[in-house]
Write a structure and sequence with these properties.
alpha+beta; 8 strands; about 30% helix; binds coenzyme A
């Protein structure tokens, strides 16, 4: 499959495929174990990872970044909230493998993910970011996300309260508040 976005000949962003499942799970589990990016302390099992990944593959809502033939990061979007009235809004996630962060890979992934969500006809992208995650807030600001507000102490991990900063990006598809419902 052709790449969606190439930042340079070093980083290639392309749609995720089934063979990426374990690499993506490893990146996600590292974030679960070592950071407050994901608010759980329970790593994803291979079976749970496969179910989560399959949903993204079916929707076409996951991308990976390859560097030197290896998966260096991934980005995905999914429903922000489940009720059908929220069907035009998605929530994004972007994860770059430790050791590859700060090199532009997150930017390459988010640029491609936004283009993909717009192409799929979505109206707004939401990011829910732990308030002290400066890198993620900065990454999203770089692509025009605006901070909506910070909800104090709605999460907990590693024995402390966590604040959630919500950011919002309109995708410029303002003419259609209708569309088909899914239930
Ligand atoms: C957040 C994350 C996806 C950003 O991806 P990245 O490849 O490291 O970011 P980039 O190199 O593309 O840089 C994007 C912007 O963030 C800034 N940035 C990157 N790392 C940073 C850091 N540690 N502190 C502050 N700003 C940082 C960059 O300077 C850049 O901003 P600029 O355009 O003003 O220079 C990545 O660091 C990561 O995977 N972190 C762990 C998981 C995580 O927190 N995911 C997000 C959950 S909401």
């Amino acid at each position: 499959m052709n790449p969606i976005y190439e930042r340079s000949d070093v980083v290639t962003v392309r749609p995720a495929r089934p063979g990426d499942a374990e690499a993506v799970r490893a990146i996600r589990n590292h974030a679960i174990e070592h950071s407050t990016a994901l608010w759980t302390e329970t790593p994803q099992s291979p079976a749970e990872g496969a179910v989560w990944f399959a949903a993204h593959l079916e929707r076409g809502s996951a991308l990976v970044a390859e560097v030197a033939g290896e998966v260096a990061g991934f980005a995905a979007y999914g429903p922000w909230r489940e009720l059908t009235g929220y069907r035009h809004t998605v929530e994004d996630s972007v994860y770059v493998r430790e050791g590859r962060q700060g090199l532009g890979i997150g930017s390459a992934l988010l640029a491609a993910l936004i283009a993909s969500a717009r192409e799929a006809g979505h109206h707004v992208v939401i990011a829910g970011i732990e308030a002290e995650n400066t890198a993620s807030v900065r990454l999203h600001e770089r692509f025009g996300f605006e901070q909506v507000g910070t909800v104090r102490e709605v999460g907990t991990k590693f024995g402390r309260w966590l604040d959630l900063t919500l950011m919002r990006l309109p995708l410029g598809r303002d003419g259609d508040a209708g569309g088909t419902t899914t239930d």
